[in-house]
Amino acid sequence: MAELRHSITLGPRATSSPMKRDEDSSPLISDAQPHQDDDDGRGRSPYKDRDRPFWSHFQSLCPFLGDDAKTSKISIFFLILVALLGFVSIFAIVKRVNAPYLCKKDGITLHCPHVKEAPSLWENPYSATTSWKPCAERHARGISDLPPENETNGYIFIHAEGGLNQQRIAICNAVGVAKIMNATLILPVLKQDQIWKDQTKFEDIFDVDHFIDYLKDDVRIVRDIPEWFTDRTELFSSIRRTVKNIPKYAPAQFYIDNVLPRIKEKKIMALKPFVDRLGYDNVPQEINRLRCRVNYHALKFLPEIEQMADLLASRMRNRTGNSNPYMALHLRFEKGMVGLSFCDFVGTREEKALMAKYREKEWPRRYKNGTHLWQLALQKRKEGRCPLEPGEVAVILRAMGYPKETQIYVASGQVYGGHNRMAPLRNMFPNLVTKEELATKQELDHFRKHVTSLAALDFLVCLKSDVFVMTHGGNFAKLIIGARRYMGHRLKSIKPDKGLMSKSFGDPYMGWATFAEEVVITHETRTGLPEETFPNYDLWENPLTPCMCKA
């Protein structure tokens, strides 16, 4: 025990630091190791490592960074470049993931982002409908930028010509033009159309109070010609009070340079004709947004028209006894449309001879002697510029997968060829109804006073449908498709590829399975999906670019 105590006394002094004890007793440290640092830095104390500069630590992590100054600068530049590329790549990936759903047109082909959802007969993919929202509405507590009433540049007056939908577009354009020139708009007059032969007034169709009030912060609108202007007939007939040289799709600058000076001089001017007299991509975006505000928010049909349309839509959804979706079909195959198209359609020799006489009478300059019409008809058919016949529509819908039981609301005038022409469509889709079959005579009598009231019912029932199908161009279909897009792109609006259909119908060797597959693939992207407006569309068919925002 004495020897043991002696050896302890002679041993090294006990330390209070665990780290020091470990260093002194570690079997990995040689007894001969010096306490000071060597040239290569081995044996450095951890406390001394704390005092090393940051660059030394960075070199130890990245050995390829040498002590040479030139090499170090190149290496640092290389590291910064790699970091930058990495940041850009991450940013691009995040941007792509968060990018809104938007189809891009390449020539006549539309490319849309891929979706994982199973295709539906009745709705566009949900992922295609969440990227965009309407943004043309009047802002709550908006501040009016209208100058005082005594500072207006003058008054403008227009005749809204044509049918209901052409009149609607003219009204929207008139508000836009009034804004461009800081002029006061006199409530537009709905001019009697030669075909419609209707004497409808603005207040017979639209809610005037709502129209004026909703736009009060944008444009000053008055119900009638000012009392101080006594010679009203002059406004309707005098050349001195009329601006007639407005070109189609005129830019905003045209009105400022050519129309505004005359309004300032005369104080009240009529603009006519006024069909398509304001452009789209050559006017300020706020003017296009204002036109959307008029179309989708300010122009409301009278309450009784809205209520009757709701009733018709409800009856369409409950025809089977349970809640069911319904399709609205805008069938443009009236005699006037068939004649104006100068296309050839299936029919007897007698029918073709009668149509030739009708065309010669109505459009003598285009008809000439009739010898060139067959070649013209073939060319138009190949280019997809002919209205689809009811039978052709039936075949396309069946190829898309719509069953025989589909409930279809038909909006059309009197179909050329009558029951015989409609027979193929009715045989393939027997649940086919019009407003006359859906409502009682007494219910519709109130609306028969104005043809445009009946057209308004068709417009609203088509707008509320689950699927809308057009068969030919025109303002009715264009406005329906545009409004359904503005409502969120969820509702399908099918625009058949008539050129492809013409080619397929003319191929005697194409089987049904091949034809159906081609129809489905072709129309996957022709259902009213989000696309940029310009230059492929006008504002009415596709309001996305100027009037919708990223959701």
Keywords:
551 residues, alpha/beta, 6-stranded parallel beta sheet, 5-stranded parallel beta sheet, 25 helices, 15 strands, globular
Topology:
Elements: H1 2-10, H2 18-25, H3 46-49, H4 54-61, H5 69-98, E1 104-106, E2 109-111, E3 132-134, E4 155-160, H6 164-181, E5 184-186, E6 189-190, H7 202-205, H8 208-214, E7 221-222, H9 232-237, E8 242-243, H10 252-266, E9 268-271, H11 285-298, H12 303-317, E10 327-330, H13 335-341, H14 349-362, H15 364-367, H16 373-382, H17 390-400, E11 408-411, H18 418-428, E12 432-433, H19 435-438, H20 441-445, H21 451-463, E13 467-470, H22 475-486, E14 492-494, H23 498-505, H24 512-522, H25 544-547, E15 548-550
Parallel strand pairs: 4-5, 4-6, 4-9, 5-7, 8-9, 10-11, 10-13, 11-12, 13-14
Antiparallel strand pairs: 1-2, 3-15
Outline the structure in words.
The chain is of the alpha/beta class and 551 residues long. The chain is built from 25 helices and 15 strands. The longest helix has 30 residues, at 69-98.
